From TrEMBL, chain A:
PANTHER family: ATP SYNTHASE SUBUNIT B (PTHR33445:SF1), ATP SYNTHASE SUBUNIT B', CHLOROPLASTIC (PTHR33445)
Bilayer topology annotation: Single-pass membrane protein
Cellular compartment(s): Cell membrane; Endomembrane system
Record flagged with keyword Cytoplasm: no
GO molecular function, one term: proton-transporting ATPase activity, rotational mechanism
Pfam families in UniProt: ATP-synt_B
Major location (coarse): membrane
Any single GO CC term annotated in Swiss-Prot or TrEMBL for this entry: proton-transporting ATP synthase complex
Homology family: Belongs to the ATPase B chain family.
Protein's UniProt name: ATP synthase subunit b
TrEMBL record, chain B:
Task performed by this protein: Key component of the proton channel; it plays a direct role in the translocation of protons across the membrane.
Cellular component per GO, a single term: proton-transporting ATP synthase complex
Name of the coding gene: atpB
Main location: membrane
Annotated localization: Cell membrane; Membrane
Keyword Cell membrane part of the UniProt annotation: yes
Bilayer disposition of the protein: Multi-pass membrane protein
Protein name as catalogued: ATP synthase subunit a
Taxonomic placement: Bacteria, Pseudomonadati, Pseudomonadota, Alphaproteobacteria, Rhodobacterales
UniProtKB/TrEMBL annotation, chain C:
Family membership noted in the UniProt record: Belongs to the ATPase C chain family.
Family annotation (InterPro entries): ATP_synth_F0_csu (IPR000454), ATP_synth_F0_csu_sf (IPR038662), ATPase_proteolipid_c-like_dom (IPR002379), F/V-ATP_Csub_sf (IPR035921)
Name of this protein: ATP synthase subunit c
Segments traversing the membrane: 6-28, 49-73
Gene Ontology MF annotations: lipid binding; proton-transporting ATP synthase activity, rotational mechanism
GO (cellular component) term, any one: proton-transporting two-sector ATPase complex, proton-transporting domain
Keywords: ATP synthesis, Cell membrane, CF(0), Hydrogen ion transport, Ion transport, Lipid-binding, Membrane, Transmembrane, Transmembrane helix, Transport
Organism whose genome encodes this protein: Sulfitobacter mediterraneus
Principal subcellular localisation of the protein: membrane
Record membrane topology: Multi-pass membrane protein
Pfam family, one: ATP-synt_C
Cell compartments where the protein resides: Cell membrane; Membrane
Lineage of producing organism: Bacteria, Pseudomonadati, Pseudomonadota, Alphaproteobacteria, Rhodobacterales
Site (Reversibly protonated during proton transport): E57
Length: 177, 252, 74
């Protein structure tokens, strides 16, 4: 193999071949690699990993707490909503009650006013009826007087002598008929 | 020999797809000894720095509402944590830092390697073999420590007909020992292949007529490489989890 | 001569990458078919999908590696 004949100086002088198989450098590489790995291991296991693990755990805890708090707040919000709904329902019922009461009151007022108006109307009607009957009676009386007078006149004109009493009796008898 | 033909073919078109993987001293020249600071060292260190910046500096505020950096850090944490928990179960969570180390190192090294002119440590077998062997040894030792001889039940498929079991045992044994090989070569091979292909397309750009095609091809390959960088880190990690699960619960 | 043969071998080994592509396509296609039949179960199987793709692709990477070795290391 060509590599076996390569010294380190040959490899440095742009010689061909695979530098990977130049075993003269292996000791050097392995030494530094082991050093690098130990350094990395110490850095990671002593400092970096515990710290990152702690940060992650802490964040997990915070997130869990926050989620619990959020659940709490959500429950409270639901409670508040229920209370609000209840208040709304109550208010609505109250409003309906008030409306009903007002309606009833108005109805009562209305009934009173109507009955009053009815009574007034009835009174007025009675009064009017009375006036009408009076008028009718007076009219009858007038007719009687006119009939007597007319009868007297007619009788006188026919040359008779009208006895007032007779005439009145006759007219009254006629008028009844 | 490749040496003779290299650089001389296709009338001046030169391809050096493997040059980008060369290991060189970061400061000055000279031979590479055991403790020389090389470009591989620099980029491995940068991967560590990137991991540090993302996971430590990113989370330094410990904010309840994360900033962008912190979100990414938490995303990476959750991603790997969930993977470990889903595959290995609750007992596997103990090994989470180990798996997170592998994941962060590979993913940072891969992504940093995508920066032009950078170096990708994970394209070297030296690196991936060590990573895979570490997983292999951990899993094997852990399996025996946790389950004792019962760990060998992994190779003795109790649900198969009796005559088949020895054959299956041999196959299982071979596949068990091939694990670190495929585990390491998959990562290094994928990363190396993508980088080498980009380099080959870049070599074609020397021809004026082809260069627009080359640029488009490099762009497309780069997009694919971004995907591959992540997926290979993911696959390496998830296979580690699967092997770990075998060690924790050896029964099939 | 040896070098030329190595190059030919590398080209032959690269065929394996295409075979791995068929394998990966098979895995992904069957996953998609299954996911469309039962979308609710799809999310839980993405990890399996990636493991399957990784295994299929690893073998292609092996052949790619053989090609690279023949090109540069033999």
């Amino acid at each position: 193999m060509a590599t076996e004949t390569h010294s380190a100086a040959d490899a440095a002088a742009a010689g061909p071949g695979m530098p990977q198989l130049d075993f003269s450098t292996w000791g050097n590489q392995i030494f530094w690699l082991v050093l690098a790995l130990i350094a990395t291991y110490l850095i990671l296991s002593r400092v970096a990993l515990p710290r990152i693990g702690a940060v992650l755990a802490e964040r997990q805890g915070t997130i869990t707490n926050d989620i619990a708090a959020a659940e709490d707040l959500k429950a409270k919000a639901i409670e508040a909503e229920a209370a609000y709904d209840k208040a709304l329902l109550d208010a609505r019922a109250e409003a309906q009650r008030i409306v009903a009461a007002a309606k009833a009151e108005i109805q009562a007022d209305l009934d009173v006013a109507i009955s009053k108006a009815d009574a007034e109307i009835a009174a007025k009607a009675a009064e009017s009826a009375k006036a009408i009957s009076e008028i009718r009676a007076s009219a009858l009386e007038n007719v009687k007087v006119v009939a007597k007078d007319t009868t007297k006149e007619i009788v006188a004109a026919m040359g008779g002598k009208a006895d007032a009493k007779t005439v009145t009796a006759a007219v009254t008898a006629r008028m009844k008929g | 020999m490749a040496t003779e033909t290299h650089g001389a073919e296709e009338g001046g078109l030169v391809f050096h797809p493997m040059d980008q993987f060369k290991i060189e001293p970061a400061f000055g020249d000279g031979a590479i000894g055991m403790f020389t600071v090389t470009n591989a060292t620099v980029w491995m260190a940068l991967a560590v720095v990137a991991t540090f910046a993302l996971l430590v500096l990113g989370s330094s505020k410990r904010a309840m509402i994360p900033s962008r950096m912190q979100s990414v850090a938490e995303l990476a944490y959750g991603f790997v944590y969930k993977m470990v928990e889903d595959i290995c179960g609750k007992e596997g969570v103990k090994y989470f830092p180990y798996i997170m180390t592998l994941f962060m190192f590979i993913v940072c090294a891969n992504f940093l390697g995508l920066i032009p002119t950078s170096f990708t440590p994970t394209s070297h077998f030296a690196v991936t073999v060590v990573l895979a062997l570490a997983v292999f040894l951990t899993v094997t030792i852990l399996g025996f420590v946790k389950n004792g001889a019962a760990f060998l039940g992994l190779f003795w498929v109790a649900s198969a007909p009796l005559p088949l079991r020895p054959v299956l045992a041999i196959i299982e044994l071979i596949s068990y020992f091939v694990r670190p090989v495929s585990h390491s070569i998959r990562l290094a091979g994928n990363v190396m292949a993508g980088h080498a292909v980009i380099k080959v397309f870049a070599g074609f750009a020397a021809i004026t007529v082809i260069s627009p095609v080359s640029v488009v091809a490099i762009t497309a390959m780069y997009g694919l490489e971004v995907l591959v960088s992540f997926i290979q880190a993911y696959v390496f990690t998830i296979l580690t989890c699967v092997y770990l699960k075998d060690a924790l619960h050896p029964s099939h | 001569m040896e070098g030329e043969l190595a190059h030919i071998g590398a080209g032959l080994a690269a065929i394996g990458s295409g075979a791995a592509a068929i394998g990966v396509g098979n895995v992904a296609g069957n996953y998609l078919a299954g996911a469309l039949r039962n979308p609710s179960a799809a999310a839980s199987q993405t990890a399996t999908l990636f493991i399957g793709i990784a295994f299929a692709e690893a073998l292609g990477i092996f052949s790619f590696l053989v090609a690279l070795l023949l090109m540069f290391a033999v």
